[in-house]
Amino acid sequence: xxxxxxxxxxxxxxxxxxxxxxxxxxxxxxxxxxxxxxxxxxxxxxxxxxxxxxxxxxxxxxxxxxxxxxxxxxxxxxxxxxxxxxxxxxxxxxxxxxxxxxxxxxxxxxxxxxxxxxxxxxxxxxxxxxxxxxxxxxxxxxxxxxxxxxxxxxxxxxxxxxxxxxxxxxxxxxxxxxxxxxxxxxxxxxxxxxxxxxxxxxxxxxxxxxxxxxxxxxxxxxxxxxxxxxxxxxxxxxxxxxxxxxxxxxxxxxxxxxxxxxxxxxxxxxxxxxxxxxxxxxxxxxxxxxxxxxxxxxxxxxxxxxxxxxxxxxxxxxxxxxxxxxxxxxxxxxxxxxxxxxxxxxxxxxxxxxxxxxxxxxxxxxxxxxxxxxxxxxxxxxxxxxxxxxxxxxxxxxxxxxxxxxxxxxxxxxxxxxxxxxxxxxxxxxxxxxxxxxxxxxxxxxxxxxxxxxxxxxxxxxxxxxxxxxxx
Length: 472
What we know:
Helices cover 79% and strands 0% of the residues. The chain is an all-alpha fold. It has three domains: 1-222, no CATH class; 226-371, no CATH class; 392-471, no CATH class. Mean pLDDT is 80; it is low at 252-264.
C-alpha cells in the first residue's frame, strides 16, 4: 500500500464515521444503514478496482438493497448475515487468492483476518502505511504552527463568545441550548463517529492488503489419523441409528404409543424437537467438514473408510431431516404456520442442499468444489427466500386453515411487518365477519402506533413500508 493511498483511507474513514453518526440515529435505521453501506462499498470500490473484488462488492451492494426491499425481522437478519459473510469474503480476498480456491477452513481464516484488520488496521495506517516521516518539513511545520495558533486563539474566542452572549439575550439563549445539547450528546456523537471511523479504516485497509497467512502450514501441523475421528463419527452413527429406530416405532405405534412412552400428545411431540433436529444436522455436517480437513492426506485407506462412514452419516441425517419435515407437517395441522417455522423450514432446505453437495463433492474427493458451491447454493436460496416473502406465506397458509374452520390468531398476524400487509388485506376479505373487522382493527391500531415514530424519519423506511405501511 502506498503512503498516498493510506492517507486517502484515513479521511475517507472519518467521513464514513460522521455519516454513520447521522444515519444510525434512528430506532431501526433500515434505510439509514443501507445508505451508509452503499457509500462505504462505493468508497472501497473507488480506492482500488480489481475484477473479482469488484464482483464481491457488487454482490454486497445487492444484499444491501435486500435490507430495504423486505421488512420481516428474521429475513432482515438473514440478509444482514449474508452481507456480513460477503464482506468477510472481501477480507479473505486480501489473502491474495481467488474465490475459486476457497476452502471450508477459510471461513475461520477469513474471520480471523477480518477481526485482525478491524482491530489493528487503523493504528497500522497511522503509524506505518501513511509514512508520516516522509512528509516535507513545510507540512510538518504547518501542523505545528496550526496547533500553536489554536491554543493561542482559544481564550480569545471564549472571551468574544462571552461578550456576544452578554450583548444579546437571543444569542445567550442559543448558547444555552447548544450547551445542553453538547452536554448530553457530544460524547455519544464522538464515540459513534470515532468507532465507525476506526472500523471503516481497518476494513478498507484489510480489503486491500494481502495478509501473510499460509493455510497449508496449518494443515500440515494438524494432519491426524482416522482413529482420532472414529469416536465422533462412530458415536454419531450409533446415536442417529438408535433415534431413527425409535421414530419408526413411533410411526407405526401412532398417538397411543407416543403418549404412553413420552407422556405428551402428538401435537406437543410435533412442536418440540424440530429446531433441535436442524441443529443436529448442522453439527454432523461440521464434524464431517473438520474430519475431511484434518484427516491425513497420504493414507488412501483412511480416506476410503471416511467416505464410507460419511456416506452412512449423510443417509442418517437425511432421515433426520425427513423426520423434521414430518414434524412440521403435524405442527401445521395442529397450530398453523408462524414466521419462525417458515424460516426453520427454509434452513432445513438449505442444510439438505449443502449435505447433498457435500456428498457429491467432498465424499468423491473433490473438496475444492465444495466451498464455492455452498456460496452459489446460499445465494440462490436467499434470493428465492426473499422472492417468496415468508410473511405472505404465513398469512395465506393460516387463512386456508381458517377457511376450513380452524383458528386464526388475529393478535399474532397484526404484529407482522409491512411485508404481510397486502396478504392481510386479502385475508380480511376471505375471513368473513366478524373476524375481518377484528383483523382490520388490530392491524390499523398496530400501524398507527408504528407510524407515529417512523413516518417522519426516512432512516427507518423500507420499500414495503412506503408502499403499504404508511397508508395504514
